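testing teh design pipeline on a random one, pls ignore if ur not involved
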């Protein structure tokens, strides 16, 4: 991972969200992250590469590296798929998903379900490392299935396989998305492993990002939901980590501009793929993103957004609330199920932001 800045910023893979349209949108809203990871390719005995996901790599206009993520538990199928993916020079590397908590995935012993079968994880990592050769082979994991106490045994396996990067969503599978994260476990991975370790989970603004880096000493941050809500978060963090100083708050009008770009890009991608497109259905699809974007804004906006049906109705509502220069609140509401748990990162002792910029910190990884 030689060409990445320290610390580096990664877009978290999110199924049905981090597609080509979203990546194009991020590029237009502050430049996006330093590294992308695709939503997962489903891998099994008969699987083939899903073309829209592949397009998010092959047609990616960002100029940044893109890693292709796979989910599955059939080792031969995973090796076949990794080899096929690496046949494309645009694919910077492949990543294995060891974190998805969806019951349907875990019941097949894939994603987070694999964390109950360490012998199988060991075998898969060994075979994939071999298949990837000099190309990047990375893993995205949770801390364990039931309890963070499982993490040490997992780390011992990761340490055997010369990973190029380990991204850690600092929760167990059981903890899904709502709890605080466990920075100490990530710190133990940073201390043990030679590869860059990336901290993931609950970064919603610059301060939560800086605190997470301080607590974990990770080589980078991976951000998912926080980047849907605020696509400029990568640029703001870069500023805080580099030149320093507070970044300009995002204005409501900028947020409205982001939503318009996202509308256009998602519509364009859908039409490009010859998929059924109608503005009415598109309103419903946009709510997948808008549910995150409105967090921290007025409850009435969320309430009416969820009920809007036509493009005109949606955009006139958004204009009523967003077409002004007022700043967007820095934090989402912790009452929201979509973002709860992040205040544990904020409430602990204050971050010495200067330490983060010191050469000692930069040299740590
Ligand atoms: C809608 C959604 C879809 C997701 N899809 C994936 C996925 O395809 N692969 C994966 O490794 N993680 C997936 N995740 C988990 C995220 O990558 C990330 O680990 C999690 O959201 C915590 O980070 P955050 O607090 O920055 O959002 C998904 C999360 C969400 C909310």
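output:
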């Amino acid at each position: 991972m030689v060409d990445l800045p320290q610390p580096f910023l990664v877009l978290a893979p999110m199924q049905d969200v981090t597609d080509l349209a979203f990546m194009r949108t991020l590029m237009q809203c502050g430049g996006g992250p330093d590294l992308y990871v695709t939503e997962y390719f489903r891998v099994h005995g008969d699987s083939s590469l899903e073309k829209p996901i592949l397009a998010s790599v092959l047609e990616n206009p960002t100029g940044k590296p893109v890693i292709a993520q796979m989910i599955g538990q059939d080792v031969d199928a995973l090796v076949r798929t990794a080899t096929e993916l690496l046949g494309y020079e645009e694919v910077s590397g492949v990543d294995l998903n060891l974190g998805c908590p969806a019951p349907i995935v875990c019941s097949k012993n894939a994603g987070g379900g694999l964390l109950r079968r360490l012998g199988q994880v060991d075998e898969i990592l060994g075979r994939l490392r071999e298949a990837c050769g000099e190309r990047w082979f990375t893993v995205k994991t949770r801390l364990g299935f039931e309890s963070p106490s499982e993490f040490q045994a997992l780390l011992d396996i990761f340490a055997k396989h010369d990973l190029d990067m380990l991204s850690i969503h600092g929760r167990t599978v059981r903890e899904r998305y709502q709890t605080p994260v466990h920075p100490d476990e990530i710190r133990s991975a940073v201390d043990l492993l030679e590869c860059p370790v990336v901290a993931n989970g609950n970064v919603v603004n610059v301060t939560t990002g800086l605190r997470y880096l301080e607590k974990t000493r990770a080589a980078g941050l991976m951000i998912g939901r926080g980047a849907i809500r605020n696509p400029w978060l990568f640029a703001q963090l870069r500023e805080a980590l580099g030149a320093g100083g507070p970044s300009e708050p995002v204005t409501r009008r900028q947020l409205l501009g982001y939503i318009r770009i996202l509308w256009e890009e998602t519509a364009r991608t859908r039409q490009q793929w010859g998929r059924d497109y109608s503005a009415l259905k598109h309103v419903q699809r946009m709510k997948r993103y808008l549910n995150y974007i409105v967090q921290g804004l007025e409850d009435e906006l969320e309430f009416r957004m969820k009920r809007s049906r036509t493009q005109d109705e949606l955009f006139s509502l958004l204009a009523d609330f967003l077409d002004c220069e007022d700043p967007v609140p820095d934090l989402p509401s912790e009452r929201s199920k979509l973002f709860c748990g992040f205040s544990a990162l904020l409430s602990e002792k204050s971050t010495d932001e200067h330490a983060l910029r010191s050469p000692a910190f930069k040299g740590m990884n």
